[in-house]
Amino acid sequence: MSGERxxxxxxxxxxxxxxxxxxxxxxxxxxxxxPSGGAAGPPFVLVHGLSxxxxxxxxxxxxxxxxxxxxxxxxxxxxxxxxAPSDGYDTATAAHDxxxxxxxxxxxxxxxxxxxxxxxxxxxxxxxxxxxxxAAVGLVDGGWLDLATAFDSWEACAAALRPPDVDGVPAEALxxxxxxxHPDWSPAAVAATxxxxxxxPDGTVRRRLSIDNHMRIVRSMxxxxxxxxxxxxxxxxxxxxxxxxxxxxxxxxxDKRVLVARAADALAQARVREYVGGHHDLHAQQPAAVAAxxxxxxxxxxxxxxxxxxxxxxxxxxxxxxxxxxxxxxxRTGR
Length: 335
What we know:
Blueprint: E1 2-6, E2 12-18, E3 26-33, E4 44-47, H1 58-66, E5 71-74, H2 91-105, E6 111-116, H3 118-129, E7 134-140, H4 154-161, H5 171-181, H6 187-194, E8 197-199, E9 205-207, H7 211-223, H8 227-230, E10 236-240, E11 242-243, H9 256-266, E12 269-276, H10 282-285, H11 287-301, E13 311-313
Parallel strand pairs: 4-5, 4-6, 6-7, 7-10, 10-12, 11-12, 12-13
Antiparallel strand pairs: 1-2, 2-3, 3-5, 8-9
Helix pairs in contact: 1-11, 2-3, 4-7, 5-6
């Protein structure tokens, strides 16, 4: 652990080194919230999705910390402010990196591990391979992602999910576009999403995660779906899918309800909390609701009560069957 710094909003940043056999060590940047009144429950470790960054968790993390939990949000390799080594762009290595963060910050303790999108798949692998580190699992519109269920071939998958080349686009234009596309997001959430890209001194942006390395992760998702890992997870799990108002297949994610049900059936202790009409980036769109649900998971992990329902929903009143899809300008999918 090295390089601890305080930020203006009370969040501290810490650098942790992850070492993988056969690869160079990687410095990972972690955003860390430490509750002022002392920890009242298990710590949370929050993992972002593909081509995202830890800052998108800030509003969720603030609620969790206010409730008395330590919180760490990690920038995965070549995301956010972490290093960009030449290798390690796959789900298994990402899970190893998160395990290094858990061990460094919470030695001897177990965490509530939460992942969004591909980060959910990473957290599933973490819980399966490093069970001594994990007390519960939160899956925010991810963790059940299996690209082979949505595409007939790798070639079709790669063509659909190759991200656009946005290098050189003015950062201010992106900020305005995201704010227009997401009027229900806070300015902080918009700013955090723009930070998926690096802003250069000339005011333009450049990708943090190269397109080649992005596609190496996508290939890992194609080759290495999460299904074999579920049987190894005995701890409580909360699945939080963003679902369309009207049922039907998604052009990218297949029939999500079927996948969520399959994942829940494979887990020993699973609850499902549906966000009907929610955006894929639920943690940016509805941070208070996401945090509230995650607090019930932490209570369950420490043996407390939950709301008593196996399933529920957070409807937000949008009659848009595809509202859970990425917007037309999404650096993660090219859509």
